[in-house]
């Protein structure tokens, strides 16, 4: 196994800056937000989820099994990294985020804070 | 393209990327079937003297639901990825819907020396890796001089 990915690094931007934008689905229901992201080729230990302030960052390093001496002839996944950031709104509870990562597919569940949950307001009849 | 690059605050390199992608789109036309960019799953192809390596980026799929076939030098990858979208009657809002769902099919033409009996496929971290051996005769050989 090796860390090599069959990509050519582009010299004009520092390597740490460049990343692919993974496709996501974001679905909101009454209890919170569910986010799915496609990060194929990222092993569990190379996935990095971070919440800082109100910014959620999803980052992953691609690690493919590449035989020695392989020359890439066609690359659609042409950078060894994925990155995407989201701004969370105030009613989301960043402390209760649950994450599942299975075969390159990430599922994040961000619940709404207790006070932001929908409530039915009773109308008192006078 | 399925996976776009992001270069924050760097318009010049973004333009450069566009130019490069256009160039690649024209330069890369190896066969009549070609390899169309931007489909699902995204694909990388590489060569070694002994094998052809194909990587299909198909995350979150049961490997049993992926079908890999090799016929007359054409490798076909088909399968289906279930939609995770909430049913219509659910009280949910879809804010972003970018991930692929449904049936997929991608085709790669293999070089003439690909050996249909020497194919192996693995699925790991959401990537299907198909390795096709090249026939012995095609591998570089040192010819001894008598």
From TrEMBL, chain A:
<comment type="similarity">
    <text>Belongs to the small heat shock protein (HSP20) family.</text>
</comment>
<feature type="domain" description="SHSP">
    <location>
        <begin position="15"/>
        <end position="126"/>
    </location>
</feature>
<protein>
    <submittedName>
        <fullName>Hsp20 family protein</fullName>
    </submittedName>
</protein>
<dbReference type="InterPro" id="IPR031107">
    <property type="entry name" value="Small_HSP"/>
</dbReference>
<dbReference type="InterPro" id="IPR008978">
    <property type="entry name" value="HSP20-like_chaperone"/>
</dbReference>
<dbReference type="Pfam" id="PF00011">
    <property type="entry name" value="HSP20"/>
</dbReference>
<dbReference type="InterPro" id="IPR002068">
    <property type="entry name" value="A-crystallin/Hsp20_dom"/>
</dbReference>
TrEMBL record, chain B:
<comment type="similarity">
    <text>Belongs to the small heat shock protein (HSP20) family.</text>
</comment>
<dbReference type="InterPro" id="IPR008978">
    <property type="entry name" value="HSP20-like_chaperone"/>
</dbReference>
<dbReference type="InterPro" id="IPR031107">
    <property type="entry name" value="Small_HSP"/>
</dbReference>
<feature type="domain" description="SHSP">
    <location>
        <begin position="34"/>
        <end position="146"/>
    </location>
</feature>
<protein>
    <submittedName>
        <fullName>Hsp20 family protein</fullName>
    </submittedName>
</protein>
<dbReference type="Pfam" id="PF00011">
    <property type="entry name" value="HSP20"/>
</dbReference>
<dbReference type="InterPro" id="IPR002068">
    <property type="entry name" value="A-crystallin/Hsp20_dom"/>
</dbReference>
